[in-house]
Amino acid sequence: MSCLSHKIFVINLNTSKDRWKRIKEQLDLQKLDYERISGIDLREDSRQHLKKRYNPKKNRKKYHKSLSIGEIGCYLSHIKCWKKILSDKIDFAVIIEDDVKLLKNLNEILLTLYNQSFPNWDYIKIGEKPIKRKTRVVKGLNDFRLIKYLKKPPTGSYGQIVSKTGAKKLLDNSKTIFRPVDVDIQYVWENKLILYGIKPYCVDPIKTQSDISDMDSKKNHRSRPLIRLLNSIKENWHQIIQV
To answer: Are 126 and 161 in contact (CB under 8 A)?
Structure first.
């Protein structure tokens, strides 16, 4: 087996005890070693984190709506995982949120990563929302397929594998926060991520309200249709020149 090293990180709020129980049971059933990462809850302490990271001016200029404290907390929770990849000096981490169902044994995907020859990669999606993106197969991997997304990668940050180089790029790209974490990751022409997916997917989001990202979803965040249109034009242009 390769000398690569990895960990499994599970993001969970201190208040989300039922979610932790549910995901823990799934992981224990698969006999996996994992580490709980305490999610950032800005309902407890928002001033310090918001002042340090969130850039409302950049948000107004480059994103079509303001971010909720839940979205910012979700982003900060993932930053916590990326930092830990570097501080723990591991080659990659499987990062999942606590509101997922494990579709396959994660040991299978780990064995594939250890035993198969891979192109350079920074970030691998292991789950996707019901709206499926068009893809092309890059490589067959025994029971899996390494895929590239033909347009933007899908949203959703509930299941991914991040390499050491990917963590460095993501941290460099998140010195200030102005978009949700999953949207930021879609902008591969900005963050320079070498991003793939692996199918069949290993995780699926449970259809319940996310404690982290939607904790204040009832709040009315002002939408900016013109910014959304301009961003869409820019995205289409980048997708065209990449083809």
So the answer is: yes
- Report the 3 state secondary structure along the chain: CCCCCEEEEEEECCCCHHHHHHHHHHHHHCCCCCEEEECCCCCCCCHHHHHHHECHHHHHHHCCECCCHHHHHHHHHHHHHHHHHHHCCCCEEEEEECCEEECCCHHHHHHHHHHCCCCCCCEEECCCCCCCCCEEEEEEECCEEEEEECCCCCCCCCEEEEEHHHHHHHHHCCCCECCCHHHHHHCHHHHCCCEEEEECCCEEECCCCCCCCCCCCCCCCCECHHHHHHHHHHHHHHHHHHC
Report how far residue 191's alpha carbon sits from residue 112's, in angstroms, rounded to the nearest whole number: 26
Q: 144-149 and 135-141: which strand pairing?
A: antiparallel
**The two structure tokens encoding residue 178:** 């102005």
| Interior angle at CA 39, CA 33 and CA 40, nearest 5 | 155
Q: How many residues are recorded in the chain? A: 243
Mean pLDDT confidence for 222-243: 56
pTM: 0.87
* pLDDT digits 0-9 by tens, 154-176: 999 999 999 999 999 999 999 99
Please report where in the chains the tokens 């699926």 appear, as a residue.
204
What Å distances lie between residue 103 and 49, 55, 86, 123, 183, CA to CA? 34, 37, 28, 20, 24
Q: State both tokens at 83.
A: 């930092």
> Does residue 230 have a pLDDT over 80?
no
